[in-house]
Automatic annotation (TrEMBL):
Protein name: Fork-head domain-containing protein
Provenance organism: Sistotremastrum suecicum HHB10207 ss-3
Classification via Gene3D superfamilies: Winged helix-like DNA-binding domain superfamily/Winged helix DNA-binding domain
Main location: nucleus
Subcellular location as annotated: Nucleus
Keyword DNA-binding: yes
Record GO cellular component, one term: nucleus
Alphabetical list of InterPro entries matching this protein: Fork_head_dom, FOX_domain-containing, WH-like_DNA-bd_sf, WH_DNA-bd_sf
Pfam families per record: Forkhead
Residue span(s) of domain Fork-head: 8-54
MF terms in GO: DNA-binding transcription factor activity, RNA polymerase II-specific; RNA polymerase II cis-regulatory region sequence-specific DNA binding
Residues annotated to bind DNA: 8-54
Keywords linked to the UniProt accession: DNA-binding, Nucleus
Keyword match Nucleus: yes
Amino acid sequence: QDPPPGRAPGYPYQKLIRGAIVGSPRLKLTLAEIYDAIAGRFQYYRDLPDAKWK
């Protein structure tokens, strides 16, 4: 379930990372690919003005 606009998803980073990896075709990703997958899934991370979350 997606969080309301402007709010972070209620998952720890470990779960976000695992979801990105498990959702990938090869079941492995580079760090940059993990960041892209998380930002692609959750608007909150796309809309942040800087990349401090990375």
